[in-house]
């Protein structure tokens, strides 16, 4: 069992490029933590610091209660799986998986047992005598995972392991990784991705990274339902949450906000929603409903996309901003060019001021 604790962790690359600052995070043993964030936000850097492949330039990293800042990678009890599989092309699957154990001078019996066990877990038994070139991309990635399993690490680190796979294989391999985790409940996994669907489906908790720090940490649905800032609100969920500028016109048990195209009421208690305060009202596309009554938003449908189970309506953007998007259940055709009024339930409305949520802290 191994938990990890990051305290004030920083990274400045040579040349004084500060990439991460003041990262504080407690990871419990047995968790599957996912780091998400836009490209270049420092996900790989953070993972590589945990692995020991990159120097920590500030703060401390503890594994199992022991500070490991200066402990070499091989002695940290962790294994890392990369986006590129980096298999040895001239070795069979069995030899690839056995390689690290051979280097560690394990006995042939021990090596055989570890490889057999890992191959079973990953359903690689039929391919043990093949070379990597005779495997599919998904099978190669499983061999790469198998190489780390044979060492029986306490912590597994994955850096975008599925991003080289095509869409169908990505889904299948994602499910395999979830099953692998279930088969090893006491092993800790940290998984990096820029794909929010992977994050939502795999994670016990998601860490959203942005602007050199942690934007929010929480269970997947907690981030979806109670984002603490506009960044997380728009990063989690697809299409992104709509943000409509408005002004607070009534406070109390309910906060009423006047918008360009209507009014909206939030029934969630607010912090600092003073009269006259300029706010952004957040409504997820899937929380919009058509209405004949008082609208939150009224606009002309510019484009529709019928996906079968839902239809996306894109409204004509005003002033070059992002279009407002509504996601309606079912098939809606012939709405292009029509004026449409939308509303939302008061408990589904989000309010932000200066980028921070007025509802969830
Ligand atoms: P992510 O994995 O989230 O896409 P990275 O951790 O790879 O982001 O990179 C974060 C930032 O650090 C980027 O701006 C990148 O250019 C910079 N960076 C990464 N590696 C180095 C390095 N060895 N030297 C200097 N800057 C680096
Ligand atoms: Mg990366």
Would you write up a description of this structure?
The protein is α+β, with helices and mostly antiparallel strands and 361 residues long. It is built from eight helices and 21 strands. It has helices at residues 43-51, 93-103, 108-121, 137-149, 167-183, 196-202, 220-225, 230-235; strands at residues 4-13, 17-27, 32-36, 58-63, 66-67, 78-81, 155-159, 188-193, 205-210, 213-218, 242-250, 255-259, 262-266, 278-283, 289-290, 297-306, 310-315, 325-329, 339-343, 350-353, 356-357. Bound molecules: adenosine-5'-diphosphate and magnesium ion. Magnesium ion (MG) binds at residues 43-44. Adenosine-5'-diphosphate (ADP) is lined by residues 13, 17, 19, 37, 39-45.
SSE order and pairing:
Blueprint: E1 4-13, E2 17-27, E3 32-36, H1 43-51, E4 58-63, E5 66-67, E6 78-81, H2 93-103, H3 108-121, H4 137-149, E7 155-159, H5 167-183, E8 188-193, H6 196-202, E9 205-210, E10 213-218, H7 220-225, H8 230-235, E11 242-250, E12 255-259, E13 262-266, E14 278-283, E15 289-290, E16 297-306, E17 310-315, E18 325-329, E19 339-343, E20 350-353, E21 356-357
Parallel strand pairs: 3-8, 3-9, 6-7, 7-8
Antiparallel strand pairs: 1-2, 1-4, 4-5, 9-10, 11-12, 11-14, 12-13, 14-20, 15-19, 16-17, 16-19, 17-18, 20-21
Helix pairs in contact: 2-3, 2-4, 3-4
This protein binds adenosine-5'-diphosphate and magnesium ion (MG).
